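Example 9 (inverse folding). The structure is encoded as follows.
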């Protein structure tokens, strides 16, 4: 059995006392824990109602003035590349967006990072979400079709050997396009694709070096989707076992089950349930607060949800939904849960520490010690 590898995703909120303080602490901690990779998200803004960003709901408000002040990920990755000289961690984005980013620009950014890191860049990529596209005038009618064309465009540019590229596409036509950045020692960045539905799973099998879905599934769901990915890879003439089976998971931890259960009831953690599709709620005998057949994070527009409406939604979110979608508990319980994911095929965990979103700032910050215990423990699974 291949060894389990571990990555950590840092936050990109503008924070105090310096803009990248939270990210810097997360990066240094990851390096000290000798993780395999460090990741940053790609958002223009947050994915939960800004009306709840108040100290009575979230202790981190004292350190993070706004949940929508996101630092730009490729700039941050370039900054980290200048610091990432001793640890040798891979650097990745989890995940960038093919809706609001032209694929030629993404190809350039990822290739640049790969040169700066001497081949340690990972391009995590997916269709994106409505909240980062539609409010900014970007068409959101066919995100998966747009994604497929973006991936094909990136690969066409990378494989052009500096020759003029001409390619018909309904989204990204190339007319005598030039891409002359070189690969690092003959290798382009790995492409890890976030996918959940059948069409996206087929795209993972055809194009990806890594499979990187997020929450809103159970270990058995992951196993079924991984089988679909490997079948698609085999159909495309690729080695299905060459695709890295990864999983992005948020972690809620603490010194006791009681502390963790208290954190799970915090408004900013529980409102995360809006990011899950209605099918998850159905498993728990409930309906999605946003309506039947709501697809979750991909179609969520949270920024104009007022405080009282948000609190009403929270009351409709079963805590069992949040427990299912996170690794949660004291470290020993989290490691038992992670073992279930490992047994379902996961070989690379990307963890996000969401503990600072709970009501208590003290407990949120103190939980970093338990999170680090989990990171170290995962490497021994």
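The amino acid assigned to each position is listed next.
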């Amino acid at each position: 059995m291949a060894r389990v590898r571990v990555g950590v995703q840092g936050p990109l909120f503008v924070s105090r006392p310096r803009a990248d303080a939270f990210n810097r602490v997360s990066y240094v901690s990851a390096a000290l824990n000798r993780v395999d990779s460090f990741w940053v998200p790609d958002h223009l803004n947050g994915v939960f109602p800004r009306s709840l960003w108040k100290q009575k709901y979230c202790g981190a408000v004292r350190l993070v003035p706004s949940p929508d002040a996101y630092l730009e990920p490729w700039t941050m990755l370039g900054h980290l590349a200048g610091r990432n000289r001793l640890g040798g961690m891979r650097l990745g984005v989890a995940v960038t967006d093919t809706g609001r980013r032209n694929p030629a620009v993404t190809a350039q950014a990822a290739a640049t990072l790969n040169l700066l890191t001497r081949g340690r860049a990972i391009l995590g990529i997916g269709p994106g979400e409505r909240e980062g596209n539609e409010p900014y005038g970007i068409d959101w009618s066919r995100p998966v079709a747009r994604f497929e064309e973006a991936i094909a465009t990136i690969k066409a540019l990378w494989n052009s050997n500096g020759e003029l590229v001409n390619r018909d596409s309904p989204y990204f036509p190339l007319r005598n396009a030039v891409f002359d950045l070189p690969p690092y020692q003959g290798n382009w960045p790995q492409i890890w694709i976030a996918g959940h539905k059948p069409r996206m799973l087929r795209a993972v099998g055809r194009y990806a070096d890594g499979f990187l879905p997020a929450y809103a599934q159970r270990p058995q769901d992951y196993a079924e989707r991984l089988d679909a990915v490997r079948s698609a890879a085999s159909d495309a003439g690729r080695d299905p076992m060459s695709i890295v089976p990864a999983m992005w998971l948020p972690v809620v931890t603490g010194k006791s089950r009681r502390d963790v259960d208290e954190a799970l009831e915090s408004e900013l953690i529980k409102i995360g349930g809006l990011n899950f599709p209605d099918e998850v709620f159905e498993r728990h005998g409930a309906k999605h607060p946003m309506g039947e057949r709501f697809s979750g994070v991909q179609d969520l527009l949270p920024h104009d949800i007022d405080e009282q409406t948000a609190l009403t939604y929270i009351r409709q979110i079963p805590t069992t939904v949040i427990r299912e979608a996170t690794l949660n508990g004291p470290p020993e319980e989290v490691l038992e849960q992670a073992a279930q994911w490992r047994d379902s095929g996961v070989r690379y965990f990307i963890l996000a520490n969401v503990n600072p979103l709970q009501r208590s700032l003290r407990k949120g910050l103190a939980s970093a010690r338990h999170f680090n215990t989990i990171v170290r423990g995962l490497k021994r699974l």
